[in-house]
C-alpha cells in the first residue's frame, strides 16, 4: 500500500521550522500553547438527538481497498488533541520520520513486541472520501511492516501494526474555531502490539505537539448504537442484536442477552414508527432510552433480573460491535459513517478542557 498525499481539507502550508532530529520536534521550537487558542473557548454540547442511520455505498466515494482495511478488524480507541502543523501533503516524509523514530527507540532499548526483525517500513496513506463536511479533515491510515531476521529474501514484509486518525461530522463550531495551523483528527483507532502504539503516539506528540488519551465509551453511546443499528434492520438484515450487562453483585454477574432482530426492530418501530419517518429523520435520546427500557423489561419478565441495576458493556450486530472499554469492530461499510460520527463526537467530548 503506497502512501498518497492530499491537500484536501488541510490548512494552507506555512514555513516549516527546521528540526534537530529527523523524527522529533526541535528542542528550540516554541510550543504551540494550543489550549490558550480560541479553539479552547468553544464549549462542546452533548447532542440529545441525531439523524437515523442511513445506508450509503461508501465505496462510491472511498477506495474499496482502503475501506477493506477498516472493516472486520477490532480497533482500540483513543482521542487525540489537534495536530500542530500537520500536513496531508507531507505523508511520505512522515512515513520516513516515524520509521526512523521506531528504529532509534528500539536501538535505545525500548521493547517492541514483534520478535526479531531487521527494520520497519511505515506507510501513511490519505483515505479520501470519509470526510462528510468541509470542516472535516481527511482520514489518515498508518501501517507498519517488518521483516524477520531469518526470513528469505523473497519473503514480503509482515504487517505488524495498523492505525488511523479520522474526523467524521465533527462539531463544525469547534472545528472552525481552531487556528489555521491546527488539524483536528480526534479519533485514533489502533490494532497491534501496545508497545508500537505507545511509540506511534510518542512520535506524534513530539512532532505535532498533541496529546493522546484512552477513549472508553459509556452506556449512553452503546444505547445509541443499539437503537441506530436496530433501525437499519428493514434495509440491512442486522442478523442479531447482542447486548451484555455487568451487574454489581457479589461476585459480579455478567449477563449476555441476544434478541431476535425482527423482535428488536418491532419494539423500535413501536417507539419510532418507520411510516412517520421524514428525509431528515431525527431520533431523540428519550426514544433510545425507551427502547433500552423495553428490552430490559422483557428480560425481567422472563428471568426476574433488573438489568437496569447494572451497566451495559457491549452491543453487537452484523453491522458492528462496540465495548465499554473502547474497542470497536466495523462489520458493514455501508453504515460506517453513522458509527464514525458517533465516535468522533465521543472523542471530541473526551478531550481535556
From TrEMBL:
Query: What is the protein's major site of localization?
Result: nucleus
Q: Where is this region: Disordered?
A: 1-23
List membrane-spanning regions.
Answer: none
Which Pfam families does this entry report, sorted A to Z? CENP-L
Q: Which UniProt keywords apply?
A: Centromere, Chromosome, Nucleus
Localization per Swiss-Prot or TrEMBL? Chromosome, Centromere; Nucleus
Concerning InterPro entries, the annotation shows:
CENP-L
Q: How is this protein annotated for GO cellular component?
A: chromosome, centromeric region; nucleus
Please report which protein family the annotation says this sequence is part of.
Answer: Belongs to the CENP-L/IML3 family.
Q: What is this protein called?
A: Centromere protein L
Q: Which organism is it from?
A: Onychostoma macrolepis
